[in-house]
Specification:
The protein is α/β, with parallel strands linked by helices. 35% of the residues lie in helices and 30% in strands. The protein is built from twelve helices and 19 strands. Strands 1, 3, 5, 6, 8 and 9 form a six-stranded mixed beta sheet that branches. It has a six-stranded mixed beta sheet with strand order 16-15-12-17-18-19, with helices on both faces. The N and C termini lie far apart (70 Å).
């Protein structure tokens, strides 16, 4: 319980009350005594009527999961005993710094009812963020005393990437019969290896698909139908090192990589493949065994949200060697990372080439459109010319690294953030159609 500014002014006003009567007459000193007694009486009365903290019952709730850009609500329920006076409460939630900080709210508590305050929650970055506590402040009826109460909440909110783009793209994709390769479109020998069905031979069908034994049993000419093989294994390897924490197009590179990974994960699971996630920088940060079925997607989404932005140099030797040791069968390994120049990319290229000897490796890098603009733009000043030359050097070194990777058998996707998801998905469908895994 603390005095308010009003109480301080009330007591400070006693000084002129004591001095002014003295100038008029020395016998009026009793006016100051009366004023002081009245002020102390008011302070005591307000303190007695102040709602005690033990009379309040506070409950804080928050959503378990939020997506970036989505607004959730942290609800604070406050109730008091029937004998408690009606009180106006000022409420403020102690939020993680990655949440958009919210101003204090005012709610009126009228016992025996319950006051409800809704605090908006909007996250600016992924991760496991906490609602630490709720602070309550109220004053007495006269506003001379105030009381502060901290209610510990310690609620964990997992902020995950926004998958609305994934669902929208999936809806467009799977609503088209011409695009669902391996799921609805049935393919013959040469385009698929997984047996699907027998059908009666029709002129124009591939004669190599004729099943002579089945035709003999049924006494009519039958041919086999094949489809792209399912139950293949995909591992999404995400680099969480310091280069991936650099912003690109308003978001860290890691967030762009996660968005593209979730898009590929959803399509892979929908097409019957098994998808796992692997996060690493100087050590392994996350790993999930490849699983099949759309029920595995929320788990991958939640694990991706827990990948924090690292500040350390990525150890490709440790990370990719650890991943290779955990793979028991040939898989499509999608490595999402970035590099600065040919020197820093040396160990990355060496370890990707070693991984590509047993696995099918798809290397995904995010190209900075601003760097391309500087390299190809027309310089207007001498400084622009210098920047253009440096940007062009970076572009040449980038192409040199990608060329080395392709020669080692690594398939590469180098795209701007707005187009990386589409290019990655097209490359995956091409790999699946050609059955390269």
């Amino acid at each position: 319980m603390r005095p308010t500014a009003r109480a301080v002014l009330l007591l400070a006003a006693g000084l002129p009350v004591a001095l002014v009567p003295v100038f008029a007459s020395s016998r009026l000193w009793t006016v100051w005594v009366a004023y002081l007694a009245l002020a102390l009486l008011l302070l005591g009365l307000d303190g007695l009527l102040l709602l005690p903290g033990r009379a309040l019952h506070v409950r804080v709730t928050a959503p378990d999961t939020l997506t970036i850009g989505e607004e959730g609500l942290c609800e604070v329920h406050v109730s008091a005993s029937e004998r408690a006076p009606a009180t106006e409460l000022e409420l403020l939630c102690d939020l993680h710094p990655s949440f958009v900080q919210q101003p204090a709210q005012r709610v009126v508590l009228t016992p025996p009812g319950e006051a409800l305050a809704r605090v908006p929650l909007r996250a600016e970055r992924r991760g496991r963020l906490r609602v630490e506590a709720a602070w309550l402040r109220w004053t007495g009826p006269l506003g001379l005393w105030r009381r502060d109460l901290r209610v510990s909440a310690d609620l964990l909110v997992t902020v995950v990437p926004d998958v609305r783009a994934v669902r929208s793209a999936a809806l467009r994709f799977f609503s088209s019969r011409q695009l669902v390769s391996g799921l609805k479109v049935q393919r013959f020998v040469g385009d698929g290896s997984e047996f699907d069905d027998l059908r009666e031979y029709q002129p124009g069908l591939d004669h190599r698909a004729i099943d002579w034994k089945a035709s003999a049993r049924h006494r009519k000419l039958l041919c086999q139908e094949f489809r792209a093989e399912r139950n293949q294994q995909i591992v999404l390897a995400l680099d969480t090192g310091h280069l991936m924490a650099e912003p690109l197009g308003g978001l860290p590179r890691l967030d762009h990589a996660i968005d593209a990974s979730l898009m590929l994960a959803y399509f892979g699971l929908r097409l019957g493949d098994r998808v796992g996630l692997f996060g690493f920088d100087r050590q392994v940060r996350a790993y999930s065994e490849p699983e099949g079925g759309l029920r595995a997607f929320p788990r991958i989404q939640k694990l991706a949200a827990q990948l924090d932005y690292g500040s350390a140099e990525t150890n490709f030797t440790l990370g990719l060697a650890e991943l290779a040791s955990r793979l028991r069968r040939r898989s499509l390994v999608v490595v999402m990372t970035d590099f600065a120049d040919t020197v820093t990319a040396e160990l990355m290229v060496e370890n990707l080439g070693r991984l590509a000897r047993k696995q099918l490796v798809l290397f995904v890098a995010l190209r900075d459109p601003e760097l391309d603009r500087i390299a190809t733009g027309r310089p207007g000043r001498l400084g622009d010319l210098y920047r253009s030359v440096v940007a062009a050097d970076f572009a040449r070194e980038r192409e040199a690294v990608l060329l080395r990777l392709r020669r080692l058998g690594v398939r590469c996707v180098d795209a701007v953030p707005s187009g990386v998801s589409a290019q990655l998905l097209n490359r995956y469908l091409d790999i699946k159609r050609r059955e390269l895994i």
